[in-house]
Design brief:
By secondary structure, the protein is mostly beta strands. Helices cover 10% and strands 48% of the residues.
Length: 207
């Protein structure tokens, strides 16, 4: 099992730099009015149940597996500012379930209070560009098996969503995640990759 959380903070900083450069060239007449607007989605937009079926990658270990994420609670954990921009991070508590159709689906809890030191974490980062009235959004999902170390199988999910640029303040109804899933069984490590911007991303829809 991977022993570290690949922090999405780097993604957030890259987005913030992009927003700063872009907003510096996008002066608007109503700057004062715009700067007073709250562009962020409500932190509860993720709360509820999201489900997906993994696309086919040619391996029955990974193909057509149903995944469920139940988000129960979110909390704002970090706020940073750069000129004309604000960047915020929310982290969530809930339950991640793999292979819902199995006799005994695999479940793992994730808890926002474990941020930033914990392993099982799901977080949403949003970077607002005040002058252009848009946000750039990312989700980092790092779920690993901290229970079934022995006996196996051991599972590891490193998935991301975004960057997603929002112009309308309308939250998405589905999320296309990319990244990889690893399963360790009987001394063998199996891995499936889901590249970004392809037909093999994992699409979660809200129920």
């Amino acid at each position: 099992m991977k022993t570290f959380l690949r922090s999405a903070y780097a993604i957030m900083l890259i987005a913030a730099c992009f927003l700063f450069l872009f907003s510096s060239s996008c002066k608007k007449e109503s700057d004062n009015d715009t700067n007073n607007q709250d562009l962020f989605w409500n932190e509860n937009w993720l709360i509820g149940t999201w489900e997906a079926t993994t696309p086919s990658v040619g391996d029955p270990i990974f193909d057509n597996k149903r995944i469920r994420i139940v988000f129960e609670k979110g909390a704002l954990k970090r706020t940073d500012t750069v000129p004309n921009n604000v960047v915020k991070e929310w982290w969530y508590s809930g339950t991640f379930t793999w292979d819902l159709s199995a006799v005994a689906p695999w479940n793992m809890k994730f808890v926002h209070t474990d941020y930033p030191a914990g392993y099982n974490l799901i977080g949403w980062q949003s970077s607002s560009m005040l002058q252009a009235e848009v946000t750039v959004n990312n989700i980092s999902l790092r779920i690993g098996d901290t229970v079934n170390m022995d006996p196996n199988p051991e599972l590891d999910f490193d998935l991301d969503w975004g960057p997603y640029t929002d112009y309308t303040r309308a939250v998405p109804t589905y999320l296309d995640f990319y990244g990889d899933i690893e399963i360790y069984m009987d001394g063998v490590n199996y891995r499936a990759d889901y590249p970004p911007n392809t037909g093999t991303m994992i699409r979660f829809a809200k129920k």
